[in-house]
Amino acid sequence: MSNIELALWSFPVLLLLIFLRAPIALAMIAVGATGTYLAIGTPMMVLNQLKTLTYGTFSNYSFSIIPLFLLMGQFATLSGMSASLFRAAESFLGHRKGGVAMSAIGACAGFGAICGSSLATAATMGQVALPELRRYGYPGSLSTGALAAGGTLGILIPPSVILVIYAILAEQNIEKLFVAALIPGIIAALGYMLAIMVWVRVSPNSAAVKERVPWAARMRALGSVWPVLAIFIAVVGGIYAAIFTPTEAAAVGAAGTGLVAMLSGKLDLQGLKAAILATASSTAMIFLIILGAGLYNSFLALTQLPQMASVWVSEQGLSPWVVLTAVLIMYLLFGCIMDSLSMVLLTVPIIYPIMSVLDFGMSADDFGLWFGILVLIVVEVGLITPPVGMNLFIINSMARDIPIGQTYRGALPFVLTDMVRVVILAAFPAITLWLVWVIDAL
């Protein structure tokens, strides 16, 4: 069997292992190590990679941003910021039809601005908003679907762990990626709110409305979320203004959220220990997936499959837009069976070189930013598509009386809005890149 055939066969084998519920990191390590051994004929290269690849990957200073953003999310959860965000959004939107669900989306967007993790955003906001949605008679499908979709904003609105990893893999500027993600993130939140508005108009009896909150109470509720705004400005604004590097900004954000949690009286020694242990556990999981993806991608590079695929695509004479459409559809299909982090780590080293040689009428730097945001969006959709929609499982585990089938159906309108958003951002790259161009011009 040639090396190319070996590489091609590795994909179905990897997917089979994932389908059989093998941990994705271990599946990639097993396939990568076995493939390298079969391609070389000796285990020495695999053993050497386990030594050099591990150290070479995790000694990369850029990866230190990941545990810092995760710790920031842990402190934000402990501090009670999620409840303040929901109350503030509810005071402005709760009196509208579907307003409580729209408030949950707005609160998810705000929490995503200081968290960076979709799963943490979904879990935290689910605890806060789900009882309120039940109280006002929202059907289980709408409640769980809206919260699962809102959770995806955690990885789109900067800061985002997935964006950091994409930037490292594709050798892109992290600061500019954060800028580029801001407008698509706002469009995502507005799109989800629009989906809720359509839902409650199609089904008028699906939810009650709250009484209108006086403006004085609205201002008090808005004032309670100043720590979120302050931390967001410190982290993201500090990066944009070149005051901090992204890693330094993550450290500032973690310290800031920790201070807020401490001053609120919700961060004691036991809570600090739990936050650190949760951060360490999540970091270890992410780093093991990074190692597995590195070993598997090293095997693919050894077989020359990515290079040959790039040459083959360029020789076909296909329109770049046709290739882009095929790639985005592939990501949507992968999202049904893989988690977002694994998809990015597994595919970007293969797909990005292929896409970067195609002519989309923009500079290489602009293409890297635009393509990264498109990838992030379709990866985000995978979090709310069955059968492996992680956000769906997290929200459904908090509402065990709601069948998972209802949660799946509840997520469909939000998936449709995501599809529309992908088409709009793909057709009009300037929407994504406009803010980057403005800041560069200043």
Q: What fraction, in percent, of the residue positions are helical? A: over 70%
The shape is: globular
Low-confidence stretches: none
What is the count of β-strands?
0
Q: Mean of the pLDDT scores? A: 86
Distance between the termini: 56 Å
Order of helices and strands: HHHHHHHHHHHHHHHHHHHHHH
Rg over alpha carbons: 22 Å
Characterize the main sheet.
none
Q: Please report which band the strand proportion falls in: under 5%, 5-15%, 15-25%, 25-35%, 35-45% or over 45%.
A: under 5%
* Helix-strand category: mainly alpha
Note the total helix count.
22
Write the layout of secondary structure elements.
Blueprint: H1 3-19, H2 24-40, H3 44-58, H4 65-79, H5 81-93, H6 99-115, H7 118-135, H8 140-151, H9 153-156, H10 161-170, H11 174-202, H12 215-223, H13 226-240, H14 246-263, H15 269-303, H16 305-315, H17 320-334, H18 340-356, H19 364-382, H20 390-398, H21 404-427, H22 429-441
Helix pairs in contact: 1-2, 1-15, 2-15, 3-15, 4-14, 4-15, 5-6, 5-12, 6-7, 6-8, 6-11, 7-8, 7-20, 8-11, 8-20, 8-21, 10-18, 10-19, 11-19, 11-21, 11-22, 13-14, 15-18, 16-18, 17-19, 18-19, 19-21, 21-22
Describe the 3D structure:
The chain has 442 residues and is mainly α. Helices cover 80% and strands 0% of the residues. The chain has helices at residues 3-19, 24-40, 44-58, 65-79, 81-93, 99-115, 118-135, 140-151, 153-156, 161-170, 174-202, 215-223, 226-240, 246-263, 269-303, 305-315, 320-334, 340-356, 364-382, 390-398, 404-427, 429-441. The termini are far apart. The model has no long low-confidence stretch (mean pLDDT 86).
